């Protein structure tokens, strides 16, 4: 495995030497960010859902900031970064999923939806506005309040991963 890794980098270095006008950038985080981009800003995501989790806005906003800090070398600005993430939480819903006898739900699904406006001030063609949703299922014998503290961080993790991939990884 190590031999393949060394061979890959040797080949990449050789190719870079042959074509010096070409720029090859590698990332182990999956981010595909222009070298001209130096900063980002994450604005607070207010909760506009009908059912409100009082800590969701803060938790999501912080999780997105932390994701960008961990997986990029960009500097965070409070506002007017080269990349701007803003939006709102538009959905926080619980719905029955699998129905068993007597029309009782065997499982419920908690879904969180977030509308994101991503602005790339360096390359405006990369900007997007999109809604992201993620969910987790839970046993219907449990109340939402009993499982919420465990489910919400898992859903936030899925959402931040999806947002990162759609905006910076160009997947």
TrEMBL record:
One Pfam family, short name: LptE
InterPro entries: LPS_assembly_LptE (IPR007485)
Single Gene Ontology BP annotation: Gram-negative-bacterium-type cell outer membrane assembly
Keyword annotations from UniProtKB, A to Z: Signal
Annotated signal sequence range: 1-21
UniProt entry tagged with the keyword Signal: yes
Transmembrane segments: none
GO cellular component: outer membrane
The keyword Signal is assigned to this record: yes
Protein's UniProt name: LptE family protein
Species of origin: Mariniphaga sediminis
């Amino acid at each position: 495995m190590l031999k393949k890794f060394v061979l890959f980098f040797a080949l990449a270095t050789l190719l870079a030497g042959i074509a010096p006008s070409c720029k090859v950038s590698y990332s182990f985080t999956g981010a595909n960010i222009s070298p001209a981009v130096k900063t980002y800003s994450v604005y607070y995501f207010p909760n506009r859902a009908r059912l409100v989790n009082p800590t969701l806005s803060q938790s999501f906003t912080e999780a997105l900031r932390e994701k960008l800090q961990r997986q990029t070398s960009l500097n965070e600005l409070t506002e007017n970064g080269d990349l701007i993430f803003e939006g709102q939480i538009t959905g926080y819903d619980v719905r029955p999923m699998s129905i068993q006898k007597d029309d009782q739900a065997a499982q419920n699904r908690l879904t969180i939806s977030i509308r994101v406006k991503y602005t790339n001030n360096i390359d405006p063609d990369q900007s997007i506005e999109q809604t992201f949703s993620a969910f987790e299922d839970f046993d219907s014998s449990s109340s939402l309040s009993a499982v919420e503290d465990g489910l919400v961080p898992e859903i936030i993790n899925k959402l931040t991963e999806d947002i990162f991939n759609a905006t910076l990884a160009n997947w």
